[in-house]
Amino acid sequence: MSTVLEADEQAIVDLVSAFVDDRVRPRVRDYESVDAYPEEFIEGMKALGFFGLLVPEEYGGVDVSMACFARVTEELARGWMSLAGAIGGHSVITYLIKTCGTQDQKDTFLPRMAVGEVRATMALTEPGGGSDLQAMRTRAHADGTDLLVTGSKTWISNARRSGLIGLLCVTDPGAVPAHAGMSVLLIEPGAGLEISRDLPKLGYRGVEACELVFDRMRVPASCVLGGEAGQGWRQMMRGLEVGRIQVAARAVGVGQAAFDAALRYAQERESFGQQIWKHQSVGNLLADMATKVTASRLMTADAAARVDAGKRADLEAGMAKLFASEAAMEVALDAMRVHGGYGFSKEYDVERYFRDAPLMILGEGTNEIQRNVIAAQLIARHRRVPSNEGT
């Protein structure tokens, strides 16, 4: 595994970094403090091609490596985690259409997704269901040549402004096991879909999260991803590898921003006649913070490298998401400690990092669920064949 990108991909990361430093960081408080949709930033991201990072070149995208995509996500999150979230679900659905979609689905959606004309979101979580996706209640049943969709999804990011919804739902309620009866539907908003008010959030402000209610929404059967029902669970689990790498990269970006702020403040602030980093308690915090951010970045890069190599990365993506998200929360808190009382003030950005960090612990499968997934994958990869010893 290498964390060094090819020159053309490093140039993309540098472009994102400049966008963040020149345009986002000076203005982020104007939007974040009032929870306003950052139209200015989103339009800038469209113009620079950020929504087409995983779209193949023949459809007008850039089609960067997963390693590059992770670094782009990190840079966006370093500026404002909400902007990394704005391309999160969009990129997962892009990846699924690219790898699993029919030719017609690719031709229909990818060119418009590449330029941000159509932004996508994924709809998995249900009210009362949380991370238990196999308890899904949203149904799509056949009605002639169409499907009728009924059910609800919640905490759907970018829901109000998305032109395409990647909906995981049940198309065969009698299937055994249950996940064999699930499909991903590519749905464009229309009659039969109600989008709730924006749900209030601790952090991750500026980008809406809503509840979607499907009331016998009629969609064509051709909207089934890949054209074959019953493949949704397998498809979405593959997509969530990308999603968890993206969430891990967001956590790295938030952690890096918090560390940068603490490192800068520790050299500016003096107490007892010296810069505070020279006090062992503060110096130790900085050392641990830097170590956690670096380890998180390497774990995320490792998972991305496996995807780029065409290998399954469910284990590695899960571990990266688990470690990086917990590390980001710890680093954000330690950055507040370094700032002392000022860390609790909205005059400094560290309080925002502390509010944004928990999302990565809870999103894309809570870390409690993530540990279950990791344990299951460890056993699957290293299954011990029972011996006959002692019999």
Explain the overall architecture:
With 391 residues, the protein is an alpha+beta fold. It has three domains: 113 residues, Acyl-CoA dehydrogenase/oxidase, N-terminal domain (Butyryl-Coa Dehydrogenase, subunit A, domain 1); 109 residues, Butyryl-CoA Dehydrogenase, subunit A, domain 2 (Beta Barrel); 148 residues, Butyryl-CoA Dehydrogenase, subunit A, domain 3 (Up-down Bundle). Helix content is 50%, strand content 14%. It has twelve helices and nine strands. The chain has a four-stranded antiparallel β-sheet with strand order 2-3-7-6, with no helix packed on it. The longest helix is centred in the middle third of the chain and has 37 residues. The radius of gyration is 22 Å and the shape is globular. The mean pLDDT is 95.
Architecture blueprint of SSEs:
Elements (H helix, E strand, L loop, with lengths): L6 H18 L3 H5 L6 H9 L18 H14 L1 H6 L1 H13 L2 H12 L5 E4 L15 E5 L2 E12 L6 E7 L11 E6 L5 E3 L13 E12 L11 H37 L1 E2 L2 E2 L4 H29 L5 H26 L10 H13 L4 H15 L10
Parallel strand pairs: 1-4
Antiparallel strand pairs: 2-3, 3-7, 4-5, 6-7, 8-9
Helix pairs in contact: 1-4, 4-8, 4-9, 6-7, 6-8, 8-9, 8-10, 8-11, 9-10, 10-11, 10-12
Cα gyration radius (Å): 22 Å
Strand content: 5-15%
In CATH, the architecture of the largest domain is Up-down Bundle
Could you give me the name of the CATH homologous superfamily of the largest domain? Butyryl-CoA Dehydrogenase, subunit A, domain 3
